[in-house]
Write a structure and sequence with these properties.
This protein is 41% helix and 15% strand. It has 460 residues and is of the alpha/beta class. The protein has a ten-stranded mixed sheet, sandwiched between helices. It has a two-stranded antiparallel sheet with strand order 4-5. It has a two-stranded antiparallel sheet with strand order 11-14.
Length: 460
């Protein structure tokens, strides 16, 4: 571990004068974060060999409820349980280190990665900007295989909080650079990184991918080439920034596909592994108040969870823990006093609202195109409003953006979907667990408690 991390830890733990071994560092962190009323130590027989940490960014409880009704089979009277319902074990609070109660992704990810709360915008540093050791660094130091799989850019807030330290999540280039300077035993923290981000790794001033290649990393830059990665270490930057949205994509289950590949690779290493997987774009859909986008991302996540569950069924020494960093958008199923939600209609939406808007602006038969793209029924009043919105948008400065906003609101009207904010909210988020040691996450806990338990498991 580098000197910055040890200095930070020593300043926080003044009672400890020296820490010669990393395992001592780990024990000190855990002792510092545990309180008297915490759960008893985990029995040895419940310590998993492998840990998969799955984060649904922005996925508050309304999202998993919405997915249940979205995916419900219309040919049965009962509402079928989803994979999320099957694995639900508790809830978690998400507040940051201030009095707002509403966290951003960086502060929440820092809590989930280090077991310590910090300010909004911080990437695994405290208020004094001292580095906080992360569980991924701990796993790497202990000789475990480490992997990060996300649908955002790999230097976005959540993955960065597991691999880097920075005073601001917005310092994307600095964070990308640090993936080659924040080293454990002379190597980058993650043995595998899959996601987006070529914009930040291939720049005019430098090409970081070449440095990774020189360190022995296999590198791909396209989802089509995912199968070409056959061994670790490996780096896949599969988009300029984040990957394409699931809805309307050539790869609507891209998180599932990347996770399958990651499981194949880490299993082949024969060593214990710690993997963080993030369904990054649920949050982006929530910020945009886009329910059709959100359900497509949730569907990809559900498929991903199913793949992981199947893996654990054949590798029972593996643990899955899944939660959200926070909830986004204040999603409600029902609106304006109407006791109804028609989320199943969203199954017929085949394009992102922005793509629908772009097509409508070019079409001389917009209502026909609307039916082809969404199959959403419109009243005569709604048809007239859509036609008027198209005409208004054509004279706007940014016609596609203006019409996209109108389309999302129209989809909300048809499905009776509501939103209260374009930002985050402070509601508790669900916690899911499966496999060896999963019972340690039952009940209500704070996001730091989840990290504390996982760090205890990694340290053993």
């Amino acid at each position: 571990m580098n000197a910055v991390k040890f200095s930070s830890l020593l300043s926080s733990l003044s009672a400890i004068s020296t820490l010669a071994l990393f395992i001592g560092t780990v024990s000190a962190i855990l002792s510092f974060t545990l309180s008297a009323d915490d759960k008893a130590p985990i029995p040895d027989e419940d310590i998993p060999k492998n840990i998969i940490y799955l984060i649904g960014d922005g996925m508050g409880p309304a999202y998993t409820s919405a997915y249940r009704y979205f995916s419900d089979r219309p040919d049965t009277k009962a509402v079928e349980k989803t994979i999320f319902d099957q694995l639900l074990v508790g809830m978690s609070s998400t507040y940051p280190d201030d009095d707002t109660y509403v966290t951003d992704s960086a502060a929440a990810a820092t809590a989930l990665a280090t077991s310590i709360k910090t300010y909004n915008g911080a990437i695994s540093v405290d208020r004094q900007h001292d580095s906080l050791p992360t569980m991924m660094e701990m796993a790497k130091e202990m000789g475990k295989t480490t992997a990060i799989v996300v649908t955002s850019q790999i230097n976005h807030a959540t993955p960065a909080s597991f691999l880097a330290h920075n005073e601001s999540r917005r310092n994307y280039d600095e964070i990308a650079d640090s993936y080659l300077t924040n080293l454990i035993n002379g190597q980058p923290v993650a043995d595998l990184m899959l996601g987006g981000g070529t914009k930040y790794f291939i720049r005019e001033d430098k090409d970081l991918t070449q440095s990774f290649i020189e360190r022995g990393y296999h590198y791909i830059d396209n989802m089509d080439n995912l199968s070409q990665i056959t061994q670790l270490p490996a780096l896949g930057l599969l988009a300029k920034k984040g990957l394409e949205p699931a809805l309307g994509s050539k790869y609507p289950a891209r998180l599932m596909q990347m996770t399958q590949k990651a499981l194949q690779l880490v299993s082949a290493s024969k060593k214990p592994f710690v993997m963080m997987v993030e369904a990054s774009q649920i949050d982006w859909c929530g910020h945009s108040n886009d329910i059709s986008c959100a359900m497509a991302e949730m569907d990809d996540l559900a498929k991903t969870v199913s793949v992981i569950k199947s893996y654990i069924d054949t590798h029972p020494d593996t643990l899955l823990v899944m939660t959200a960093d926070h909830s986004t958008g204040g999603l409600s199923l029902g609106r304006e006093g109407t006791y109804q939600w028609k989320g199943q209609l969203l199954k017929n939406v085949t394009m992102m609202p922005s793509a629908i808007a772009a097509s409508l602006l070019k079409s001389d038969q917009p209502l026909t195109l609307w039916q082809q793209a969404t199959q959403l029924p419109l009243t005569k009043e709604q048809q007239a409003q859509l036609t008027a919105n198209i005409a208004t948008a054509k004279s706007a400065t940014e016609p596609t953006r203006k019409l996209t906003s109108s389309i999302k609101k129209l989809i909300d009207e048809v499905t009776f979907t509501g939103w209260t904010t374009s930002g985050h909210d402070a509601v508790d988020v669900p916690v899911f667990a499966y496999g060896m040691g999963s019972h340690a996450f039952i009940g209500h806990q704070d996001n730091t408690d989840i990290a504390t338990t996982l760090m205890q498991m990694i340290a053993r």
